[in-house]
Amino acid sequence: MKKFLFCLLLALLPLAAQKPETLRDFGNNPGNLRMYRYVPEGLDPGRRYPLIVVLHGSILNVATTHRCGGWARIADSLRCMILYPEQRFVNNPVRAFNVFFGLRRERLWKEAESVMSMIARMIADNRADPQRIYVAGFSAGGSMANALLHLYPEYFQAGALLAAPAFLPPEIIGEMPRIPRLAIIQGEQDPVVPPDNATEILLEWLDKYPPGSLERAGAYPYRNNPHLRAQFFRHEGETVLLRLDLSGVMHQMPVDPGPALPQGGRHLLYSVDIGIYLNYWIAEFFGLQAHSDGDNTAF
């Protein structure tokens, strides 16, 4: 019995070590959000490292997103940091970021300002690289990620939106001083956020580029996976906009459980196994492949 308990404790220690840290006082917080961060051990204090801002969907929280999304393994393997803003129940009864909720719309600006305060704290405390900040969001978190890219385009190198509703306040949609790279990811059978939303977001982003400036290409099956269909929009040889459609996927996060990257993620009610670990694919799109400081030529 003692041997069993000892083995159980050893098995649980890595999980405890990978738990994100809570920061209660991170600076200006008009949106009344919570801040969590995951910083891998052994980072060189003399270097700066990439930062991925991960935004959860409705009903979800940071604990579930971190554990089932496998972000700790990605951060440890690719030597990057993870920032998790978390919505509070008192702000929204389904824990959605307030991007498209009628009279609550003014909360969007406050919540976005809170996220930017968290990013500033990561730059100051943990030496996050201000030139390599990325944002990824699922569902309502995808809408907030899209809003952040519009409100603060100069701060983000790239973004990824999965099953993101297209409801952005019209006053923040328009020209940008610089245009971050973007991946728009959509389940073709999503009953919660139908594919028309991804189409609308894509058209909004295409409008930001001069007519005729983008070269378009497609791939099916993408990466030899019959569930994946990709559209690439390239500017001067670089993919600046990408749409990835997921066949047979509803309002779910694709995972590919396995012992080592590029596999990862865990089965959960909102996840689906179609042979791609989407969070790792997102990190690759951001240019964070192993032994890389930003090469995205694979896209």
Describe this structure as you would to a colleague:
- The structure is a single chain.
- The chain has a ten-stranded mixed β-sheet with strand order 1-2-4-3-5-6-7-10-9-8, sandwiched between helices.
- The chain has one domain (27-285): Rossmann fold (3-Layer(aba) Sandwich), CATH 3.40.50.1820.
- The protein is globular and about 45 Å long.
- It has 299 residues and is α/β, with parallel strands linked by helices.
- The chain contains seven helices and twelve strands.
Pick out its properties.
single chain; about 300 residues; alpha/beta; Rossmann fold; ten-stranded mixed β-sheet; two-stranded parallel sheet; 7 helices; about 30% helix; globular
Annotate the secondary structure layout.
Blueprint: H1 2-17, E1 21-23, E2 34-38, E3 49-55, H2 62-69, H3 71-78, E4 81-86, H4 106-126, E5 128-138, H5 140-151, E6 158-162, E7 181-187, H6 196-206, E8 215-219, E9 228-235, E10 238-246, E11 253-255, E12 271-273, H7 278-285
Parallel strand pairs: 3-4, 3-5, 5-6, 6-7, 7-10, 11-12
Antiparallel strand pairs: 1-2, 2-4, 8-9, 9-10
Question: Which stretches are low in confidence, meaning pLDDT under 50 for 5 or more residues running?
Answer: 1-17, 291-297
Tally of structural domains = 1
Shape: globular
Q: Structural class given helices, strands, pairing? A: alpha/beta
In the CATH hierarchy, the third-tier topology is known as Rossmann fold
Compute the separation of the termini in Å: 52 Å
Q: Specify the helix fraction band.
A: 25-40%
Secondary-structure element series: HEEEHHEHEHEEHEEEEEH
Q: What count of helical segments does DSSP give?
A: 7
Examine the secondary-structure arrangement and name the CATH architecture: 3-Layer(aba) Sandwich
Into which percentage range does the β-strand content fall? 15-25%
How many strands, which pairing sense, and closed or not: the largest β-sheet?
A: 10 strands, mixed
Total strands: the figure is 12
Radius of gyration: 19 Å
User: Under the CATH scheme, which class?
Assistant: Alpha Beta
> Roughly what is the average pLDDT, rounded to an integer?
90
Strand line-up of the largest beta sheet: 1-2-4-3-5-6-7-10-9-8
CATH superfamily: Alpha/Beta hydrolase fold, catalytic domain
